[in-house]
Structures are given as structure tokens and as C-alpha cells.
Amino acid sequence: MIRKEAVEEVRRETVPRHRDLWLLDPSVAFLNHGSFGACPVPVLAEQQRLRERLEREPVRFMVRELPPLLDAARADLAAFVGADPDDLAFVPNATTGVNAVLRSLPFAPGDELVTTDHAYNACKNALDFVAARTGARVVVARVPFPLTSADEVVEAILAVVTPRSRLALLDHVTSPTGMVLPIARLVRELAARDVDALVDGAHGPGMVPLALGSLGAAYYTGNCHKWMCAPKGAAFLHVRRDRQEAIRPTTISHGANSPRKDRSRFREEFDWTGTSDPTAWLSVPMAIRTMGSLLDGGWPALMAANRALALEARSILCTALDVPIPCPDELIGALAAVPLSPGSMDSPRSPLSTDPLQDALLDRFGIEVPIVPWPTPPRRLCRVSAQLYNGSEQYRRLGAALGELLRR
Is 45-289 a domain of CATH 3.40.640.10? Predict the structure, then answer.
């Protein structure tokens, strides 16, 4: 149970003025927007409206109304991420996007698939699975953390690229360490070496500005349910036009032999992979409008505010724990990670990993924040998120709570 004093501390905090837009438990300092996001009330209301419309006449909605609704939502999303709508497909999450690409490509024995030791575990598993089936080899670049320059990221990755390298799976924003990688530079350098980039942009949309049409990556997949604050189940896959013919969804369905001639097979296949609830995708435009209306400067102001708060949070934690700043400010978006003293070697009780310290922070202090095993146990990090509903006092409380728990 959360101790009573912690609950009272949460209630005494200066609540950011947009806090009531979310349904988050007011007794918890929620510092983990990065894991699953949090959806504002107006966006949830839009999704519920769409669900009711679907259930009033399911056949009319799914067969007659859904295609143009998806086209309209895709157009709004394309404008937001700087892409051509014809190069975008909706998927339920970025992990599905990564799997769709990896399981579509014809790798062969001797091919090398490059990634880093900051890769998201689920996507690294997909890479290992495909390599084991095809005889390809996964090559892991060791990117230091802490580090002092973005150059160290680029140098570490390019150092493992060889003439046998076929694809590089790179995070735009690393999940465990919260770093915004210099992805445009990496895509250019890899292309110069004839290596396609598959960018895991799970945290990119809504955290950092995107211009996917000019980025030039062969493949980019991103979540809308995290920093864009759309409902869970909203994500996209962007495939460069010259690579679309080879890419198929993870589920093959009616689109594979669709007779329609007014759109590409890529669009047809990804738009329908079987019966599912499409309302998360259709709510993306409302998420873009809602979040973009909260500050006078729109989305650029929102991204800047979250980044400033993340930098402040990191400074507070580093001071409280007496540790140096682990990476330059230029690599920070709305996430920040700080190294902690080593933890336990015990196996986590969940595939998503829950350190006993994370449980103690929630149970005793009312703070929800991830304690991330990285690069391997017992080494670990504390990763904080910054969203409009957060305030600096929450990070000061976290610093004090970590100090108390780690001294025990």
C-alpha cells in the first residue's frame, strides 16, 4: 500500500494546469509516460464516439465507412510526421512495424543485421528470431552510456558495419537510456555504405519533430499512443516508396488479392488484416489537435516544454544521487535516464521487468517510475518521463525517495 504521507505529498504538489485532462490516479506521481503513454479525456471521448458508431451498424462501418475514415486519419498523421500518406500504414504498435519489415525481407546466410546494445528488447528478439531462421548474423554495436558526444554513437555503430551488412535496426529514442540518437546523420552514413535503416521510432512521434519524407530511412515505425497521446493500439509504419513492394503485414488477409486499382497493395494489405477495433487509429487526428492546442505555440512549444522539464528532472536526480550528467543535453528529448547503484541478480517477475526498487517507490512513496536493467543486471538505471501533467516537485520527491531507499 502507498503510505499515507506520500499520498498527502502528491496532493500538496503544485498541479500543472493541464493535469485534469488525464484520468491518472491523483495519488500517484506518474513519471512513466514513456512506457505506455496516457490518453487525454477528449481523445478517449472521441474513441468512444467512434466505437458507438461502429456498434450501431458494424457492417456499414467496417465495409462502407472505414476506408475513407482511415484515409482521412492517415492524411492528418502524414502531415504531422512529414510524410506522403501513400507511404504510411497503420499498425497496432511499433513492435509490429519492426516485425513486419524484418519478416518480409529475404535475408540469407552471411548477411549481417546491425543493432545496438540500447535496442528495445522486444525488437532485438525479433531480429534474433529472423536471423536464426535465415542464417543471418546479428551484430551488436556497443554504444557507451554515460557518454560525452553524439559522435561516440555514430562511431560505435559505423565501426561494426562491413560489406556484409544488410540492415541496421536503430532506435530514434533509446528505450532504456532515453537518448535521442542522431538518426538523420546515421541514416546518411549507412546509406553511403549501402545499408538500409529500419528506425524503431517508438518514442519519436510527439517527442521530437519528424520529417520522414526527407529523413530518407528505408523504414520507420512509430507509436502514436506514447508522446502523441493517442489511444493504445495506434502506431504507423512508414516505408520508402522504392521498398514497399517487398513489405507485407504480419497477417496476410484480403488485401493480398484485392482487385482495387486506385491504391497500392501496400495500402490495401495493411489497412485490413482481419477484424479488429480501428478506433485507436481513427482517434489520431483528435490526439494531434488536442495536444497541439494546449500551449500557445502548439506542438513545437509542447515538445520544448517537455524537453526542458526532462532536463530539469535529470539535473534534480543527478544532484540528489551525486552522480554526473550521463550524456549531453543535445541527446535529450522528453526522457532521461540516470545510473543507479547495482541491484539484484534475481530474474524479473515480468517480461517487462520490475525491479524491487520500482515496487518500493510505488508502494511506499506513490511514485511510478521505471527502474531499467541496463546493460545487464545488476547494473540499472532510473528513467524519468516528462509530460505536461508532470511538475518539478515530483522529481524532487523521487530524488529524495531514491536517496532513502538506496541508503538502506
Answer: yes
* Mean pLDDT for all residues in the chain: 94
Which region, left, alpha or beta, applies to residue 113 given φ > 0 means left and ψ of -120 to 50 means alpha?
beta
Q: What is the CATH number of domain 4-30+298-407?
A: 3.90.1150.10
Q: What is the pLDDT of residue 17?
A: 77
**What's the N-to-C CA distance of the chain in angstroms?**
19
In this structure, what C-alpha cell is assigned to residue 110?
Answer: 552471411
**Sheet of strand 335-339: strand arrangement:** 335-339, 380-385, 371-373
pLDDT score for 3: 54
Distances from the Cα of 196 to the Cα of 21, 119, 172, angstroms:
41, 17, 15
227: number of Cβ within 10 Å: 28
pTM given for the model:
0.94
Q: What is the mean pLDDT of residues 182-186?
A: 98
